[in-house]
Design goal:
The protein is mostly helical and 170 residues long. It has one domain. The chain has two helices and no strands. The mean pLDDT is 88.
């Protein structure tokens, strides 16, 4: 007898006949129903094993998916961190560039201001020199006008004296 009993084993089982033994028809009916039950249990067991195989495959598939999702999540987190770091680095670089550019513009503006102040100082100096020359020239002309006025007055006096002197002489 094998370790597993099948429905056929039960149906094919023969028992020796003894005096006053069991009713062989009833034993046959019982063995037949027992064989049917074993067959049903074997079919059910086979179906359950197939279901269990499918479930194991599904569990393995779900585990693979979960592992893949976990790896994807880790990768996404790493990419997010790298993106954050890259963005921070780029923003720092942009700020530095903006600072340098603003410092250059400020230096250029300061240079232009210094140039304008120098030109303004030069223009004021030239204006002051021009005013001084103009003042000197006006003083010279005033002196000349005063001298001419004096010469005219002297000439008028001389003329008056001549006339007066000629009238008395004659």
């Amino acid at each position: 007898m094998s370790s597993r009993i099948t429905a056929m084993d039960i149906q094919g089982q023969e028992f020796p006949i003894k005096l006053r033994g069991y009713d062989s028809d009833e034993v046959r009916i019982y063995l037949s129903s027992l064989a049917e039950e074993i067959e049903r249990l074997n079919l059910e067991n086979s179906t359950l094993r197939e279901d269990m195989g499918r479930f194991k495959e599904q569990i393995a598939e779900y585990k693979d998916r979960a592992r893949s999702l976990q790896e994807t999540l880790v990768t996404a987190q790493q990419m997010a961190e790298e993106f954050k770091e890259k963005s921070r680095t780029e923003s720092e670089l942009l700020v530095k560039e903006a600072r340098l550019k603003s410092e250059r513009l400020l230096e250029q503006a300061q240079d232009q201001l210094n140039q304008i102040e120098a030109e303004t100082s030069r223009a004021k100096l030239e204006r002051d020199m021009f005013e001084g020359r103009l003042r000197n020239m006006l003083q010279e002309h005033e002196s000349l006008l005063d001298l001419r006025k004096k010469e005219r007055a002297d000439g008028d006096n001389l003329h008056f004296l001549r006339r007066r002197g000629g009238a008395e002489v004659g």
